[in-house]
Each structure stands twice: as structure tokens, then as C-alpha cells.
């Protein structure tokens, strides 16, 4: 390394202008050195801080990967393969985190410590010595000026001695100070080279050590593991690209097919109304009262489910029942503040007023208000394929209902009437009713085994239970002659004629009570059994 320039210590006592001029050059160099090292220190401090953040982030990543199997994702499910893979990744990253921690320690010792010492000790020492040198130089100039003003006419030996002592002391102090100042400036030329090279050497050695440590930990096994994961990622990416392409094509197809539906009033000739729907769903506006004579509209999502009209607001988990629409009437109505309005009236007189928002496909409701809320098919239609063969006795007295048929011999599907212990309807929903049947074989703990069947009907469940009771009563009197059986059937019929579609037989309450009373003792005994 070439030699360095130095301030001459031999000329410090003389303190000539040339010496002061050379001192100014060294002071300018010191200022430039201080500015440069201040920037270099900030850069290395950022490296050190970034390494500490990387070490902490790597450790946090490892911990989060270990906790993955504890997470519960609504759509993720229990993916054991992913959990096992992430556990392996956590192990690798945990080892890397240890390597990063070692690197952070080495950077602190080998890089940050030398440059920090140069900043806070060496450069700070030069600043202090400069201030002391300036003070001692001013004191020396003051003492020399005072000595120069001593009078020759009136010499005062005491004063003269004091002034001379002052000059001696100040000159000695200035000389010592300037020599230390010059020496420190000369040493600074060496120190700044060391302070520049030593942190860089420490940084490179720490990085090399880190890479060696990582190479030792990442064995061939980990390399194979990472290769397999890379292959899996490429497979997932190809699958994603294929799915994205198919999704984009689906979007384009849906856009082309849905373009006519974007208009609020599409042409019914181009989009005919589907009159064969078994389910209907969409947004409607429902009217509700806000006062005695005032009302407002609220937008809700309506859908049919079975024979029920349901509604659901946005944010709700499930829908709620609005009304039973199997036995209701639908008609279009005129409203001043809404278009395409219609009214649904249930069998008990309950009415709701609905309007489809213009931004929806309002033309369908305009075409036929009935199509806006399409009742589902009756239970007789839905369960037609499940209806078994009907076995009857020679009396051949059948009562046809919307869900099944009851004969004096058996209950469809193939329940012997003699096994019916109890038949009852739901107290709140009259469309629900059930049978409690006594099984044919075996007992459990000395008690007969019973089975309960629950059904849903389009008609009143109490009527069906009345019919079952009547059928059982007729079965009990099966040995009676045909004329007596006909008389009992005629006596138990309610006033009025059955429906035109022959779907159910209307029975009177009094005769149902007679039927039930006739069997009360037997039902009680069977129930207790």
C-alpha cells in the first residue's frame, strides 16, 4: 500500500502559515472522510437491519408452517398431503432460520463493530482535538499580545514575570495540543483505510460462512424433496392454466347466452316463458305496511321449495317460510309505484304483493303472473314412481288421497292395518302426519318393537288419519254383510261431494270421533305395549 501524507510534528512549535495551510488540507480531508463514512455506515446498517428482519421473518415463517395443520379452512378440508409437505418445509426453513441467526451475529461482530468504532471513537476524537487546539491557540495569541504591550519605561518586575509565565504556559499547551492533533490526523489516514476494508472483509466472511453452513444442512435428501415439490407445483400450474382457459370459455359462452337477458323487458318471442318449471327463484320486491295507509317495498330473494314459498335476505344463512302455495291463487294486479305486480292469496286469506324489479327479467311475470311463483308438483306426481301395488279385500272400499291410498286391508306402502297402533297429524303443520306401526317379529326387553313413519301431504293430515281410522273400523267388522258395511260407510261420510279430481274423500268430524272412539280401547292397549 503506498505511503501516506503526514503533518510535520517538528514544525508545530513554529506554527508557520505554511504549516497552518497544510493543516487546512488535512481538515478538509477529514470532513470528506466523515461524510463518506456516514453514508457507508447507513448502508451497512441497512444490511444488518435487513438481515435481522430476514432472520425473524424466516423464523416466523417456520412457525406458521408448523401451525398449518391446526388451522381450519372452510374450503380446505383435511389435506394430509399438504400438511405433511408443509411440515417438511417448516423443518428446512427452521434450519435456514438458524443459519440466518448465525449470520446476523457475525455481521454484528465483523462488520458493524469496526465501522461503528471508527465513527464514534476515531472521528469523534479528531473533532474534540480540533476544538481544544483552537482554544489553546487563542489563549497563546492572547498571552503573546499581552507580553508585547509591556512598557519599557515603567517596568514592573512582578507583572513582567506573570506575563512571561502566562506566555510560557500557553505556548507549551498549544504545542502539546497541536502535536496530538497532528498525530491524530496522521493516524486517521491509516484508520480510515482499516475502517473501510475491515467491515467489508467481515461482511464477505460472514456470507461465505452462511453459504457453507446452508450447504452442509441442505443435503441431497432435501434437494430431492425440493425437486419433487417443484414438479408438483408445475403440475398444479398446468392444471390451473387449463381450468382458467375452460373458465374463460365458460364466461364467454355465458355472456353470449345471457346477452338478451340483460334487458329489463326482453322480447317474449325471443325468450319464451317456460311453463314447465318445478322450481323458481329470483329477486322480488315485497310490499309491507309502514302505517295505516302507507306502505313500502323491500327487495328480497324468493324461491319455491316443495309446495312452499320461501324468502331469504342477503346475509342470511337460510330462507324462511312465507306461505304454502300448493293451495293458493296467483293473479296480476295494478300498482301505481311498481311494474309487473302480482298477488298471492293463500287458502286462509293471507295475501302478499310482489313485484319483480325492472333490472330482473320482468317480462316473464308480465307474460303470466302465475309463472312467477310456480308451485311444485303435488306429492302424488312426485311419488308416482314409488307407489306400490294396492292390495284390497273383496269389499274393495278405497279412499284416494294425494300421497297414498288407504284400503280396509292395508296402508300404502303395504302397511297391514292391523299393525297400525297410532295415526296422528302435526299440531302446527297439518300437512304432516305419521303412523306408529307394530312390527311383526320379535320383542326387545320384553316389549314389542314399534316403528314410526312420517309423511307430508297436500291435504289435511287429520282427514287422512280419519280415513285410516274408518278403514280400521271397517276391517274390524269385515265379517258383517255387505249391506251393513255400506251403511257404515254412508253414515261416516261428511256432507258434501268429493273433489272433482277424486284426490281425497271428505269425512265429518263426528264420524271421525265415532271411529276413533270405537278403537280407543284397542289403541290404548297397543300404545302402552
TrEMBL record:
Residues 7-245 form the BAR domain. Residues 520-529 have a biased composition (Basic and acidic residues). Residues 490-529 are annotated as: Disordered. One of its GO terms (biological process) is signaling. It comes from the Eukaryota. One of its GO terms (cellular component) is endosome membrane. GO terms for molecular function: identical protein binding. CDD domains: BAR-PH_APPL (cd13247), BAR_APPL1 (cd07631). This is DCC-interacting protein 13-alpha-like. The lineage of its organism: Eukaryota, Metazoa, Chordata, Craniata, Vertebrata.
Amino acid at each position: 500500500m503506498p505511503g501516506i501524507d503526514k503533518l510535520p510534528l517538528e514544525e508545530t512549535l513554529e506554527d508557520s502559515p505554511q504549516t497552518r495551510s497544510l493543516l487546512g488540507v488535512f481538515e478538509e480531508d477529514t470532513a470528506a472522510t466523515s461524510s463518506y463514512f456516514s453514508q457507508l455506515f447507513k448502508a451497512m446498517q441497512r444490511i444488518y437491519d435487513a438481515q435481522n428482519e430476514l432472520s425473524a421473518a424466516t423464523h416466523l415463517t417456520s412457525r406458521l408452517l408448523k401451525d398449518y395443520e391446526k388451522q381450519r379452512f372452510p374450503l380446505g378440508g383435511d389435506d394430509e398431503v399438504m400438511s405433511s409437505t408443509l411440515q417438511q418445509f417448516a423443518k428446512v426453513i427452521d434450519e435456514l432460520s438458524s443459519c440466518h441467526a448465525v449470520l446476523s451475529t457475525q455481521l454484528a461482530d465483523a462488520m458493524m463493530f469496526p465501522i461503528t468504532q471508527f465513527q464514534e471513537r476515531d472521528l469523534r476524537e479528531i473533532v474534540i482535538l480540533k476544538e481544544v487546539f483552537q482554544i489553546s491557540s487563542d489563549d497563546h495569541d492572547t498571552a503573546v499580545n499581552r507580553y508585547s504591550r509591556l512598557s519599557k519605561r515603567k517596568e514592573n518586575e512582578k507583572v513582567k514575570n506573570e506575563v512571561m509565565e502566562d506566555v510560557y504556559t500557553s505556548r507549551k499547551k498549544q504545542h502539546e495540543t497541536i502535536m496530538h492533533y497532528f498525530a491524530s490526523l496522521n493516524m486517521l489516514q491509516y484508520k480510515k483505510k482499516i475502517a473501510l476494508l475491515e467491515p467489508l472483509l467481515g461482511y464477505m466472511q460472514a456470507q461465505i460462512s452462511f453459504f457453507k453452513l446452508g450447504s452442509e444442512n441442505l443435503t441431497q435428501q432435501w434437494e430431492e424433496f425440493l425437486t419433487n415439490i417443484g414438479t408438483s407445483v408445475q403440475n398444479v400450474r398446468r392444471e390451473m392454466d387449463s381450468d382458467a382457459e375452460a373458465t374463460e370459455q365458460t364466461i364467454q359462452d355465458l355472456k353470449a347466452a345471457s346477452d338478451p337477458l340483460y334487458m329489463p323487458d326482453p322480447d317474449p318471442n325471443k325468450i319464451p316463458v317456460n311453463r314447465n318449471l318445478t322450481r323458481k327463484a329470483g329477486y322480488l320486491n315485497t310490499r309491507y305496511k309502514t302505517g295505516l295507509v302507507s306502505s313500502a317495498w323491500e327487495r328480497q330473494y324468493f324461491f319455491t321449495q316443495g309446495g312452499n314459498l320461501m324468502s331469504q335476505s342477503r346475509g342470511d344463512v337460510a330462507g324462511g317460510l312465507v306461505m304454502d302455495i300448493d293451495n293458493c291463487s296467483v293473479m296480476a294486479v295494478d300498482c301505481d309505484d311498481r311494474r309487473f305486480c302480482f298477488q298471492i292469496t293463500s287458502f286462509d286469506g293471507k295475501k302478499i304483493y310482489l313485484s319483480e324489479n325492472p333490472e330482473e327479467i320482468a317480462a316473464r311475470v308480465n307474460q303470466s303472473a302465475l309463472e312467477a311463483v310456480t308451485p311444485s308438483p303435488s306429492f302424488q306426481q312426485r311419488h308416482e314412481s314409488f307407489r306400490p301395488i294396492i292390495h284390497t279385500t273383496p269389499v274393495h272400499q278405497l279412499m284416494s288421497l294425494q300421497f297414498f291410498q288407504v284400503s280396509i286391508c292395508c296402508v300404502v306402502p303395504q302397511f297391514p292395518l292391523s299393525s297400525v297402533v297410532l295415526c296422528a297429524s302435526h299440531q302446527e303443520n297439518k300437512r304432516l302426519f305419521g303412523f306408529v306401526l307394530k312390527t311383526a317379529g320379535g320383542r326387545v326387553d320384553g316389549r314389542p318393537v314399534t316403528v314410526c313413519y312420517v309423511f307430508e301431504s297436500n291435504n289435511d293430515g287429520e282427514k287422512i288419519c280419519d280415513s285410516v281410522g274408518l278403514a280400521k273400523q271397517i276391517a274390524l267388522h269385515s265379517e258383517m254383510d255387505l249391506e251393513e258395511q255400506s251403511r257404515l260407510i254412508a253414515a261416516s261420510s261428511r256432507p258434501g261431494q268429493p273433489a272433482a279430481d277424486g284426490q281425497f274423500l271428505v269425512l265429518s268430524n263426528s264420524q271421525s270421533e265415532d271411529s276413533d272412539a270405537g278403537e280407543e280401547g284397542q289403541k290404548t292397549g297397543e300404545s302402552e305395549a
